[in-house]
Amino acid sequence: MKIAAPRLRAQLDPASLTLDDIDDETRLLDLSLEDLDLSDVTAEHVELSGCRLTRVKLAESDLDKLILVDSELSQCDVANARWADAAVTRLAITSSRLTGFAGPGMSIQHATIRDSVLDFGSFRFAKFVKVEFTDCRLQNADFVSADLTGTVFRGCDFTGAEFSQVKATGAVFVDCTWDTARGLTSLTGATVAASSPIDTLTFTSAVTTATGITLTHPDELDRA
């Protein structure tokens, strides 16, 4: 799977924004944003294109129908943000905090998310196309009815995550953690690879539990 990288200009215009600078249909183009606090920003149809965000706080933001194109987020705080129906293309996220992030109905394509925390993230009815998560924590994340077709997850922690009714044909999960994950029977068509026998057993146990099958030792049956 070839993922297109963000297309940014060699020289970006430094900008210092405040909440008052962002309103409905605001367009932010080819900017370098560093160490800004835009927490709680609320707007619709904002476009962010060709931008690099470094240590920017977008916690609790509510950006309905956000357009996010050709951009990079590094060490950003997007905790408890809600970006419903966002359209995301060619995005790179690294070392960022997205705990409690909600992206219901969002479309995200050609994106990489690395070394980031997305615990309790919600991606219900989201559509992922050519997306790769690497070394991310997704504990208790909600992927109900999401389209994960072809998505790649490497070294991710899905402890307590929910996968009910997902589409997962061609999705790949490599060396992931599955403790108490739910809805794994919906991962029909996906490939799960694990270097550790323990991770394989954890996944197998979770699937058998979901289907109502009990794994046990013959000695346990004798004691029943």
Give an overview in words.
Helix content is 9%, strand content 28%. The chain is mainly beta and 224 residues long. Strands 1, 2, 3, 5, 6, 8, 9, 10, 11, 12, 13 and 14 form a 12-stranded parallel sheet that branches. The chain has a two-stranded parallel sheet with strand order 4-7.
Secondary-structure blueprint of this entry?
Layout: E1 13-14, E2 27-29, E3 31-34, E4 42-44, E5 47-49, E6 52-54, E7 62-64, E8 67-74, E9 87-94, E10 107-114, E11 127-134, E12 152-154, E13 172-174, E14 191-193, H1 197-210, H2 218-223
Parallel strand pairs: 1-3, 2-5, 3-6, 4-7, 5-8, 6-8, 8-9, 9-10, 10-11, 11-12, 12-13, 13-14
Could you give the order of the helices and strands? EEEEEEEEEEEEEEHH
Percent of residues in β-strands:
25-35%
Any idea what the CATH architecture of the largest domain is? Answer: 3 Solenoid
Give me the Rg, rounded: 19 Å
Mean pLDDT, nearest integer?
92
Query: pLDDT under 50 segments (min length 5)?
Result: none
Major sheet description? 12 strands, parallel
Instruction: Specify the CATH homologous superfamily of the largest domain.
Output: E3 ubiquitin-protein ligase SopA
Instruction: Kindly give the count of domains.
Output: 2
What is the structural class? mainly beta
Number of strands: 14
**Molecular shape:** elongated
N/C terminus separation: 50 Å
The CATH class designation of the largest domain is Mainly Beta
